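Reader question, answered in our methods column.
A reader sent in the components of a multi-part assembly and asked whether the whole thing could be modeled at once rather than chain by chain. We filled in our standard form and ran it. Here is what they sent:
COMPLEX SIZE: two components
ENTRIES:
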Amino acid sequence: MDTSKKAVAALALNRFGLGPRLGSIAAIAADPRAALLADLDRPRAGELAAPGLPSSAQAFRTVADANAERRARQITMAKAEEAKAQAEPSMREGGVPTANAAATKMATEAVPNPGRQIYLNEAKARIDAALGSEVGFAERLVWFWSNHFCISADKIQSMSGAYEREAVRPHILGRFQDMLEAAESHPAMLFYLDNTVSIGPNSVAGINRTRGLNENLAREILELHTLGVRSVYTQEDVSRFANVLTGWTLLPAADNPDHGGEFAFNRRLHEPGAQTILGQVYSEGGVEQGKAVLHDLARHPATAKHVAGKLTRHFIADEPAPALVESLARTFQDTAGDLKEVAKALVASDEAWSLPPTKLKRPSEWVTAMVRAGGGTTADPRRFTAGQASLGEPLWRPPSPKGYADDEASWIDGMGQRLDIAHTYAERVAGALDPRFVIDSVLEGTVSAKTTQAVVRAESRQQALALLFMSPEFQRR
Amino acid sequence: MAPCRHLPSRRAALLGSGALFAWTQLPKLARAEGRDPRLLVIVLRGALDGLGAVAPVGDPDWIGLRGDRALVLDGKTPALALDSFFALNPAMPNLYRLYKANEATIVHAAATPYRERSHFDGQDVLESGFAKPGVYDSGWLNRALLALTSGGRVDASGAGALAVGPVTPLVVRGRAPVMSWAPQLVVPASDDTRARLLELYQHTDLKLAAALEGRIRLAALAHADGSTASGPPPQLPPPGIARARAYFAEAAGTAARYLARPEGPRVGAMGFVGWDTHVNEGVADGQLAGLLGALDGALAAIESNLAAAWRETVVAVITEFGRTARINGSNGTDHGTGTVALLVGGALKGGRVLADWPGLKTAHLHEGRDLKGTIDLRAVLKGLLRDHLRVEEAALAESVFPGSAGVAGTAGLVRAA
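And here is the structure of the entire assembly that came back:
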């Protein structure tokens, strides 16, 4: 097979997939475009076979139940300690606070937080799916959309993995509108962007209580998820949309042992009446009012432009040609947001195959590519997530609702950190992994002569592997 | 001025000319002048509630606005009186001490020129120095370094800037070389591996070469006096506010150690997240109090690690915009406009609150909801860059804060050297 064909295959695997594994360049070299499309045509592409993982609501209840049990134990133990202290007056001085602290410590040890373990189980399922996928295009789309509609495990750890499985994965090749509705109505999102505490000022609950509107979710939907910042909406639109979304909440775990953590529309929190958004009047209709707004937002030309811009920036170039963005936006509009057609249009574009690999892989993509090239098919989720976190991209923990940045400037100064991670990984695998084998058999000779030279001249296998994984052709796509 | 689009070639040119290495041989003109100035910029991402940090307790409308969530002098957690009108959040005892020692200045009702409410556009305006949001690839701090001539206090060609954290803040990105440092969790690669990789990059990818080089120089600096600047590798930090506290202190303290070195960088920047307090803001004893306490700890770490260099330092703590003047429906605040900027450091002529107080009556609020911005934050930053780092007026108005000729730099922020 000639080198240029292999180079195109490697480009396809890096730009749209998760990087070459042993044999994957040869497997797709005959027709890399078709291989990418075939990855999307697999039955249930994008979904995760994850038996045993709890639903988001189950995970939420598990954590809530543990918290409640811990509190109960703490109270019981504190009472016992206090009684003991009172029985021994000489011990009384400062004895009660100490008893309380001891009770808290004992309760924490007796009932640890299950949220961390749920997070790690979810992380493992996701990492193994990435390492196990042949091409990885569908997974990359999952990652892209999960970042577009991001939530943070710092705020809602129990649901962070299940959210992606429930709201994102089923729709990456479906309609944008369905993903939008699934994401915005998902309890994790409602919790993350504070909609669970947003109350219509004139709703039954709003009149009875002193709490009221919170516009966080409404603003981020308009600014980040649909129309895009500085597009067509005003502060008034944000506030009215926030009114529309009041009542979108989740069932509290304390009162709902079987359904706590599930989505609920609570009419008592909902601001009554019609609302005008972007000049369109939405009559009162309970939860349907919000769905109607999302429906129209999904079809708005500004949304098509915003989404097309982000997709091209992610997959093709930091500064994509405007014509390419426009053409993709047109596909989005013409197909009413059919995301499979949009993904196919991206692959069909000339730029996807003609532009040099200038994009710097994000830390998550680069770490995954490294382990794939090293022959790993499964990973320790603790180590993997810690590595990703030290590179500035902790899994499901973006610093803000905007998600992780998609440009080189944000990540390039992390090269020192990447080298240390490459070095650490290389140290672990060098005993069983020959760098020459990775170049010849995994990357099929698609690295530069200069990189090959550096690898060959390295002082150790470990150093050779670190240099290979840090080489420009391994980091750019 | 259009955003710079020529980063790679300029960086490559700097690399080619050897300027990247020149920073260790800085001419110390500044010392002859009596000061070797340091400037550290801390960006609070998410929009700090300025009224929660520094409360206008003397404003007759203050209590009416925030009710029992208003910080007051005789509350359960009494605010710390700064003067007859303003009082500081009690979570910041260090800042209070510095203020009393004339080493802190508080600027109130300040705002960038940005008047919308997107965090991300707001941060871009704050950090780029441009008056309008857009896509920029350099920040005002980096361009200020470029604007410095060798006659200035800081040598421009090689002084370098320090970025702290795994993601470089926009304010310090640009053509002047940037060194970055992030907390370590893994065993670092050897110097030899670094040198070999750098050699590979120099033949294949100059942008990667420049990025790696910043890191190598920083590592060399850390080992210059036989100790490590970053100390022992930190453990995984604890969750929640304790994690924020640990991270703030470690990041700020490390930055200070680098800035303190005679041959180290002279400007630095870092970002702290978590200030978007929409729900249960907890001004006096919750979320915001915890974050302000963490920030206060970071300021203390900076002061102590700078040691003698503290006298030559200004730390500017800035945020993209403020929050709504009133409490929202969930005991928090939504995105607003005017807020505070906190300046600390031994080089300041401090002990003052600078404000052109706009008032809190609804008619005086921006769009009836936010504290107005009556001081242009660019004026404060220009004053610091001019009087502390000696950046020329013309450069400040054109390249550092483009289109800001009409915004005069605030005079008298720093002591005479």
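What stands out: The first strand of chain B starts at residue 38 and ends at 44. Chain B touches chain A through 62 residues (CB under 8 Å).
Send us your own complexes using the same form.
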